Amino acid sequence: MTHHDVVIVGAGISGICAAIKLREAGITDVVVLEKGETFGGTWRANTYPGCACDVPSRLYSFSFAQRTDWSRVYAGQAEILAYVDGVAREHGVDRVTRFGVRMDSARWDGDTWQLETSDGPLSARFLISAAGPWDAPNIPDIPGLADFPGAVFHSAQWDHDYDLAGKRVAVIGTGASAVQFVPEIQPHVARLALFQRTAHWVLPKADHAVPGIEQLALRRVPFLSRGMKGAEYAAMELLGRGFRRPKPVMVAVQKVAEAYLRAVVRDPALRAKLTPGYTIGCKRILFSNNWFPALQQPNVDVLSTGVREVRGSVVVGADGSEAEVDAVILGTGFHILDMPVADHVHGADGRSLADVWAGSPEAYLGTVVPGFPNAFILLGPSLGTGHTSAFQIVEAATAYVVQAITHAHADGATLDVRPDILRAYVDEVQDELELTAYNQAQCNSYYRDVNGRNSFAWPWSSGALVRRFRRFDPTVFTVTHVSEEISA
C-alpha cells in the first residue's frame, strides 16, 4: 500500500492552495486526489451559459498569484478556470495530482488514515478534505421527475449536446445560477416557464469589459492595481458590515434593490411576484443586469410557486399551475451543509463525520472536528460570507492547516481538537449570528441546516477571520506523540 504524509481530496481552489502552501513549507510528500480529469472544482463543473463570478476578479484570485489582465470586472467561468488551472500547473500541483481518482472512504486506524479509492488503497498521516460545499448538485425529489420523457439536467451538469432552440423549457429554482443562465437561454427557447418558490433580492452588477489601455495601465503602474483592489475590498467589506449589523447599511441596500426593481420591471403584477417577502440579507443577494429584462419577455412565464409533481411532460406547481415542456433545467443549488464527503470519512470511534454532525455540521474554525485526528476541512462549516472572496477564506484556513501539519509533522504528533474548545467556539458563533441579517426570522435560506441552525455563515468581518486563523495554538488540541502511543 502506498503511504503519504498528506492526502488532499479535491483539486479546486482549496486543494490547489493546500498543495502549494504545504510544499512551500517543506511538506513535500503530498498527493491530491481529484475525481475529475482537470483542476478547477466548481469552476470545472459549472459550464452553464452565462456562468460567472459575482465577486470582482481582482479579489477572486490567490494573493500569491495576482494578475492585472482580467478581461472583465467580473470574470466568466472559462477565464477563472484557465486562471486556476494555470496557477496549479505553474506551481507543479499537476505533478502530485491523481486525476480521475475518487476517494470512497477514509478511516482512522489509531495511527494513520486508511483510504479506499477508485484506484486502490492509500494511507496517510494527514487528511485534508478540499471537496468544498459546491461539489454535489442538489437534485430535488420531485414525484414523476424521473419519468419525464424529455431532457432533464442540473445547471452544474449542463447538457451542451441538447439544443434548447425552439424548445419549451421549465426552469426550477431562481438562485445564483438561474439568474445567470436564464437570460442566456431565454432568447433561444420557444417558451420558458420559471418556477420560483421564493423571490430573491437582485442588485445591478457593475460589470464591464476591461479595455486594453486599462489593462496596460494596471500592469505598468502597480499602485494603481493595488488601489483599485483596495477600493473593491472596502466596498465589499461595507456590505459585509451590513450583513453583521443590518441597520443602517442593509436598509439602504434594500432601498437600492427596491428602486432597481421598480425602474426595470414596469408591470405591477410581475413586480409583485419578483418582490421578496423578507428583509435583504438573510438569503444570498444576487447581482444581474439582465435577469429582470429577460423575465419580461413575451416567451417567459414567471410562476410564483414551487413544484408539486411532474405528470408526463407537464410540470405541476404547488398552486396547481401547469406547464407542458420539452426540457427541465434544475437551478436547485448544491448539498452545501450535507456534503457527501462527510459520509465517507470515519473517525476514531468508527462513526462517519455525517453521523457525528447529525445534520448540523460544526468544526473549530470551520477546520477541525474532535474525534478526527490529523484531519482538516477547507471551506468548512460557519466560514461562509455573503460578501467576500472564497480565495481569502481558503488562504486563511490553509495557512492554519499548514501550521498545524508542520507542527505535528516535526514532532511526530497526532492532533485532535478538544471537544470543549469546539463547544465554546460554536456557542460563540451561534450567539453572534443572532445579531446578523443571516438569521432573520422571515426566511429560510440554505445557510440553515436540516435542524434549523445556521451552520454556514461567519458572523464577523473577513479581517477577523484572517486574524483568527493566523496563529496556530497547540493547546486547543489533545496532542499525542508516537512514543506515548507505544508506551501506552
Describe the structure.
Helix 1 (13-24) crosses helix 11 and helix 11 packs parallel to helix 13. It is globular, with a radius of gyration of 23 Å. It has 488 residues and is an alpha/beta fold. A hairpin with a 4-residue loop joins strand 14 (314-317) and strand 15 (322-324). Strands 1, 2, 3, 4, 5, 6, 17 and 18 form an eight-stranded mixed sheet that branches. 32% of the residues lie in helices and 18% in strands. It contains 14 helices and 20 strands. The chain has two domains: 2-136 and 335-487, FAD/NAD(P)-binding domain; 145-201 and 247-330, FAD/NAD(P)-binding domain, CATH 3.50.50.60.
What is the element layout, followed by pairings?
Layout: E1 2-9, H1 13-24, E2 30-34, H2 42-45, H3 77-90, E3 97-99, E4 103-108, E5 113-117, E6 120-129, E7 151-154, E8 168-172, H4 176-185, E9 191-195, E10 202-203, H5 212-220, H6 222-244, H7 249-264, H8 268-273, E11 286-287, H9 291-295, E12 300-303, E13 307-311, E14 314-317, E15 322-324, E16 327-330, E17 345-346, H10 353-357, E18 375-377, H11 390-411, E19 413-417, H12 419-433, H13 462-470, E20 477-481, H14 482-487
Parallel strand pairs: 1-2, 1-6, 2-3, 4-17, 6-18, 7-16, 8-9, 8-16, 9-12, 10-11
Antiparallel strand pairs: 4-5, 5-6, 13-14, 14-15, 19-20
